């Protein structure tokens, strides 16, 4: 709110504040460790474009892309990503933080772990598709196409062919694109 510049220290403080606040909430809902295990293990993958800077902050699993170059977050041993709420136990919670000057034109994409089976090039290309950030519902519809299973009837052969969904887990994706000559845009689904 104070307009602090983007920095690792800012992200670290936000992480501490979120874990502390949710820890208080967890303690009010029941045995804290059980509430955390049952309801508060989640990933945070965030992107910001502001005042000529861009930043990505990630704790947990998923992926991010800067100008179409994808960085996966995981896989992790025993499928146990370093979720933010593990900080309540005193365990270290490593995060990825990138803060850098933004070029005149670029993109940031963040995604939760549900995108894991996609090839990196295909995920990175999402941020290049201007339609996904200019139309308010385009990104959601695009992702729905990847998460929907389907059937096709072959009437001659008398059989139904099933097509599995490309993505087998829930997914959230956010995209920010900017062109200082044309304004900034963004979409999330």
Keywords:
single chain; 10 strands; five-stranded antiparallel β-sheet; alpha+beta; 27% helix; 5 helices; three-stranded antiparallel β-sheet; 189 residues
Structure write-up:
With 189 residues, the protein is an alpha+beta fold. The chain contains five helices and ten strands, in the order H-H-E-E-E-E-E-E-H-H-H-E-E-E-E. The chain has helices at residues 8-29, 32-39, 120-126, 131-134, 138-147, and strands at residues 44-50, 53-59, 62-66, 69-73, 96-101, 105-112, 150-154, 159-163, 173-179, 183-188. The chain has a five-stranded antiparallel beta sheet with strand order 4-3-6-9-10. Strand 7 (150-154) and strand 8 (159-163) form a beta hairpin. The mean pLDDT is 87.
The averaged pLDDT comes out at: 87
Order of helices and strands: HHEEEEEEHHHEEEE
Number of strands: 10
- What ranges have pLDDT less than 50 throughout 5 or more consecutive residues? none
The secondary-structure class comes to alpha+beta
Reported for the largest beta sheet, the result is: 5 strands, antiparallel
Helical content class: 25-40%
Number of helical stretches of at least 4 residues:
5
Strand order of the largest sheet: 4-3-6-9-10
Give the percentage of residues in beta strands.
Answer: 25-35%
- Distance N to C terminus: 25 Å
Work out the radius of gyration: 19 Å
Shape: flat
